[in-house]
Amino acid sequence: MCSTDGPGADEERLHALTDAELLAEVAALVAEQNWVAARLTAAVRVADARQAAEHDGLKTMQSWLRTHCGMKRPAASALVHRGRALDLLPATGAAFAAGAIGADHVTEIARITAPQHVAAAAEQGVDLAAVDAALATIATGRPFQALAEAVADYLARLDPDGPEPDPARQRALTIARHPDGTVTMHAELDSVGGEKVTAVLESMAAASRCAADDRTAAQRRADALVQWADNTLAAGQVPTLRTRRSQIAAVVGVDALVDPATGKTAARTGFGATLSAARARWLACDSTVARVVMGTDGEPLDRGREVRIVPAPLRHLLDLRDAGCVFAGCDAPYWWCEAHHILHWAFGGETEPDNLGLLCERHHGKVHHGFRIERDPGGAWHTYRPDGTELLLHREDLLTGKAPSKGQDLLVPA
């Protein structure tokens, strides 16, 4: 099935297959992956039962998998618990061993083996083996969603009069910060909480779409989540803790702040992320920022007070003048936007209407990473790509070279 001549040769072989042959190979590889996962689960189960980790001085198989195999804590725990659950799920175990279902299917079916569910089934005379066989059949021949619904239906019927679960105990959000400052989130919400969050994110993601938007649905939702945070911070609705309101904080060296060529580790945020100088300037462009600018010898030169860079009256003027994001093709409303300094204040740019323009969070980042905006004497905004070409939207604009105007000139003070 697999070529031994290296990945390049195997890719050439795959390109030579017909669509039917290629899909057959994918199916075979998925089955093989499931089979390997089943063997691993079985081996871990035996090692767990024998407490084999003690051989290497460790107490549990979870800790052994983390330290000796480099597995993440959730993955190691899931692997061990999957093996224990299969002791009560022979039909599921057989389908898993045959490669017909994957680890995700086993994890979903294993929900029925929680001690309280097993006890309830025994009290009601439920044949757990029959339920296992039925669920294994569904997992083998139907989409995963059908299996999840079947498991949920079984558990609901098992305890129809049980107490309504506490939504707070059904919710979990983990935030993992990586060495480069990026963040991975995993959330689990109850049905009502999930509906609320989905309603907000989907509406914001839909409203943020603009011409030539090539973001995936996942990227649009992630941008909406950040926009949600921006709106909350801007509205000042974050709780006060220890006499301080949660905010964005940054520490940056003075040389990095004014040097556009500075590398990726020029600044550090309050939660420990590292930023480039460009990102630091973007962050400080229009936010309530607690900034500390450090000198070349490490001494603090500026402990910038927490002040709004663009004062409220001026911001109101920008809202009226620009009406929303001025980036070509974007129709984000003004309440989603930040006030961008065309010439950054770190380089002497004034906080005046002629040096300011509204940009949504996404396009503010674009402008701090290569794109450029400019307002002509007639009040029309122009957007330029990193290569210097102007971003024009309509066919008549492409023919005439005239950019569509944005904003209302009569609102700009003389």
UniProtKB/TrEMBL annotation:
It comes from Trujillonella endophytica. It comes from the Bacteria. SMART domains: HNHc. The lineage of its organism: Bacteria, Bacillati, Actinomycetota, Actinomycetes, Geodermatophilales. Residues 313-365 form the HNH nuclease domain. This is HNH nuclease domain-containing protein. InterPro entries: DUF222, HNH_nuc. It holds the Pfam family DUF222.
